[in-house]
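Replying to the earlier thread about multi-chain prediction with a worked example.

Input:
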Amino acid sequence: MKVNSPLQIYKYLPQTNCGECGEATCMAFASHLLDRSKKVADCPPLLDDKYKKKYLELSELLAPEIREVVAGVGETAVKIGGDDVLYRHQLTFFNPTVLAYDVTDTMSEEELVDRVKRISGFKKFYVGSFLKLNMVAVRSTSNDPEKFKKAVKKVSETTTLPLILCSFNPDVLAAGLEVSADKKPILYAATKENWQQVSELALKERTPVVLFSPGDLDELKTLAVSFREMGIEDLILDPGTYPRGEQLKTTFQNFLKIRRAGIKEGQKDIAYPLMATPITAWMVNEDPIRASYWETVLASVFTVRYGDVMIMHSIEPYALIPEVLIRETIYTDPRTPVRVDPGVYEVGSPTKDSPVIVTTNFALTYYTVESDLSSSEIDCYLATVDTDGIGVEASVAGGQLTAAKIKETFDNAGFDFKEKTSHNTVILPGLAARLQGDVEDVTGLNVKIGPQDSGRIPGWMETNWPPK
Amino acid sequence: MVKKLKINDVIELLKDADVEALEGVTFEGDIELEIEETTGIDSLFAYTLGEETAKIGLYLLNLARSIGYPVDQIARIQAQPPAPRLSKLIESKFTVGTIDEWKTPIEEVTLGATSSDGGTRGHTITLGGERALPYYFDAPMPNRNYVTIDVFDMPISMAKTVKSNYEDVMEDAGEWAKKVVNEFDADMVTIHLISTDPLIKDTPAVEASKTVEEVLQAVDVPIVIGGSGNPAKDPEVLERAAEVAEGERCLIASANLNMDYERIAAAANKYGHVVLAWTQLEINAQKELNRKLMKQCGVDRDRIVVDPTTAALGYGLDYAYTNMERIRLAGLIGDEELNFPMSSGTTNAWGAREAWMVSSPLKEDSDWGPREYRGPIWEIVTGLTLALGGNDLFMMMHPGAVKVLKEITQTLFGSIKTDETNLSNWVAEVLA
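Result:
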């Protein structure tokens, strides 16, 4: 965006402090526009005709530096790009990297359907919700329009995930579009050879299109400028993801260059989302485990540095789990608090015989423990000690998790073991075992040491609870 | 597509949809409706609103036509302006600048000393010296990333996938050190004197220092000497270890604000070592510790490496990564309390349950697959992410993870040459 202070935005607002946006003042609303937690359209008065000019100007000023491209329709539609900063701590990154996994038009129908189901069904629990995959990339390995059309049709019947239609042959792409245009797929790809036909497809069906120019940024910009001139703005740039050696180093630097030009230098001509294709790891590795590892390595590199959408092949859990988690790592909003409020929380419906478990107030620790307990339907009290948002192992080492702090947590919450429990026992995390003696001395409670990982609490309970 | 509506429904809907919003709606042809951009409605808003109003509009249009109203004459028919077709591409040149603000280099810190410098190491390793973020095009990176593999002074519990590599050497730190250097390509060895912890074996400092001597005898790479992490005992243990390793320019791990860091610093100064300054995911604490080491303890700038804490992928790596990136960026633009090489306890990745558990404890998760493949990639991705954030030295455990991390960091560094790949038809050529 072109502004960096709420004051600059305030000038464009009605300045009536009417409160219709939910904020007390226009200045407060301006701050939300600046950190992108609210949109211009959230100010109802600004939609009035008399503010039309200011509305338009403000929208232009607040537009993200990198264009946001939407693919797919309905609930599974994906937003790609839309970033405003080069480093996540400067604000946050928007629109997590869209992860697409491939199928081909030479697979048997059975194999294709099975793969699509595995892609769309994958889920990994993380901090209160499930991480999922976003798209299916249909590759034409047959180069036969009819075969491709059939495969695309089958895929879109099998999943609601949006598609990337992959072929450098415009006739193949056209055939795929015939059966999927209403689902707004991404066209992959326009090149310096096929750009005329592909641009016509993109114009006709108004689908986003990827511009592919491996290793040549002049040519990539040439394509981008030309497509823009033809009225095609939903563009994604693929500078080529070379899988190894010096070409990979250059690829990495190309991603940096394009994004820096777009965000720091405001070069609109190149300020589009970027596509990486870690799948090229499979062109240079014979062993499937090694290929899958290297693909995950490439996916990680380009999740950290500016890949907005990626095509991968491996759907092995050891590829998918790190891929969705590195994406979460980079796209988690750094402005959200790292800690939860200290206190004694009830999980399920605890009774006097239920265990009392101690953990820290680091948000990730808390949510992990909490989800392990609720998923296993363990009714208990979960005491969250204020460790300055540091996890168990580090806070024991660093002195933020101590016997005194644990006592303070129960005291402040008014939690009386004599009244609330029948066992007068507290359970410490396995990684805080060294505090056992101190906690016994300071609190006078019986102290039991739980497992090192809260995922093992159910098994631990079987042999250790109720206390003898 | 068209919903069957009664006229009363239409009136109700229009009321709910805010009739004013329809003022800017133009009937186009006989099916499409377009909301003009100039009505001051956010485009996304217009998009969602458009669907509803389009249905209603179409209904009204058909209704009007069916009762003989000349709708086609009043509905403005607007042809889409033809997009300019290009007969050839508009040639363009791509250019981008470098970052002027990166004026301050990261300190270069050398670990290990050869006989010419009063040590017995076969070679030295130099960390740092960067003038840009890692692998950026702004300035060449002078030194590559290095990996030091963990060795312990007693058998410890570790993930099965890791342990299977070390079962034959866990009773002998010297043999363990040899194995990681000779078989697993470790650039350095870290000897963790974990048994000195009063809650483990409470090995006396004097006895523990013998293990350091054994390791120095067994291998000739530069070494890192780690305590047990017990803040009360570590100063004594590390002091004694520093003494027996005098002149070897070891990395002493570590000094932190919750212990008697002055003693660690004094020992490093006296016996010619480098201090690892460890803080916990807090950039200001890192500044404070570095400042104290320099100003209060007199540690030279080229004898400080920082460890801002490594949290595993999925367990706080976002904080660890951003903390490192911020430290590195601050150093490059001139914060002389932060422009030091960084070290990561990448082994922490093995604390993540995804790295070692047989299967997910949550029944709702998709199958986690075999753990022997999950663990190493966890260590790789944790380390790699931090490498991109500016980390220089990696403390690791799994040999397979070490191999892949070295391969990717050295590729991005530019020292790995391979045959070229032709991507021009990758869509059809990837045979997987």
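Chain A has 17 helices and 17 strands.

Feel free to reuse this layout for your own posts.
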